User: What shape does this take?
Amino acid sequence: MIKARINQIEVEVPEGTSILEAARHVQVKIPTLCKHRDLLPTAACGICIVRNKGGNRLIRACCTPLENNMEISTHDREIVDVRRSTLELILSNHPQACLTCGRNGECELQTLAADFNIPTESIKRYVKDIPPDCSTGSIILEFEKCIKCGRCIQVCQEMQNVWALSFLDRGINTRMAPAGDITLAESPCVKCGQCSAHCPTGAIVENDETPLVWEALHDPNRICVVQIAPSVRVTVGEAFGLPPGTNLTKKLYAVLRRLGFQAVFDTNFSADVTIIEEASEFIERFVHKRGALPLITSCCPSWTDFMEKSHYDFIDNFSTAKSPQQMLGVLAKTYYAEKFGFDPAKMFVVSIMPCTAKKYELSRTDEMYASGHKDIDVAITTRELARMIKQSGVDFLNLPDGAPDSILGDYSGAGTIFGATGGVMEAAVRTAYFYATGRQLEKIEFESVRGLQGVKEGTLHVGGAQVRVAVAHGLANVEQVLDRVRTARRTGAETPYHFIEVMACPGGCIGGGGQPYGVDNERRRRRIAGLYQDDRDSVLRCSHENPEVIRVYEDFLGKPLGARAHELLHTKYSARPLYKK
Assistant: This one.
């Protein structure tokens, strides 16, 4: 343990703790722009400078470990003046576009400028006029708003192992861009949006498609229906000042009807359907030896994109089951439309997702027209939904509770935990065990796949056989899992895993690139806890117990993996180049 003083306050922290972190232990907030709790310090911005008594220079708190007997000053007059000058330099290279920026009111640079009361420009402004990159349709790069903090690059290269972003040029012309100065769509980008989730300004934002949704809602010839992803219910409240993990499922049902949607569905329902198909697929491969092992989940569009580009030797291992978003879209424009006599051509299906890559998923033309029409018309993020609610004038938090349309809305606890890393695996295991043995698991919680460790492993005994599973979240963690499988293939050894779950974003969908800003592991844990509580509160906790899912199969789909289920609910994959020409 290290003992020191910060602003005359005694502090004791473990060896290796940075001055920045140590200050938080004694409720001292040192400002910073480049440091994020998910990331290693880069000391790029220079805002976090502090002074050690007896030292002849200012030091950067984010990357300097606290040492015994240090006496740190964090806010004397000189330090504040240097921070203000540093902010003025940053602002001199930044456009004055706050009112039209996607981060207006949620920008870390804007907040610091207000905190330091910078009312006038003291340095001549130099902002390069570079057009934005809108090429992916999912996220937008606004280069002129970049403050060169390096967060997005560290996330893309180290956390996600995608390497779509880097720094180009030098000196005052340094800028963030895809390597080779190509468009983002031409790069290895998988549209996960972790760059936008970690950017402190509006340099990287989601492609806002709320105008398309408003237009459809105001069109009397449209039949507007909507679905809510599992994780959105425990994150949207953050945009309204509620603690992370607050479950607003019933408020969401109510507000979406107020916005004008004629039917409100829940993606948890189609998550249950996904499990029926995926668990059946696993039984086919594991029990009946029909198909390659390990089976690998496919409900994350960034992961499917990454796999097709970088790990296409695992195509035969990929579950052919579509994602819950895709399944609900096709069921809305077939089963639901048929039940109520709606013309699917007039239906406008909106998905509310935690993920910018869900926008990209709609462009996968081989998958998104199973109904004969585009199965989902628009996908918006949690952030976009929050803006729509605020624009609507509805007092969201004080609405009476609402209910979903039961035909595609009722769900089990297994469906709701899809939003957390390990949740898909746990939900699938609950149903696969029942399909293999005819019995329910005695202990339904599968603790070994829970938590925020990058790679989690577990073993389950099914009818005398041992099932080995692995869960990876954050794409940089996938490589070690797949390499173990590759090594077994190469040496002729038995596969180390029978079932693998992969989520591109750290924490799973609760940490998705379209979720409210400010994510870190503490916030991820609280969001995950909200989903697990919803599971515990559910009367039904296994997908195969959901009576509405059973009815869909009896009335429309037939049996799991049957002809109609395969036609509507399954897809295929193909190898694609890492760089698009």
The chain has three domains: 2-75, 109-205, 211-569. The first helix runs from residue 19 to 25.
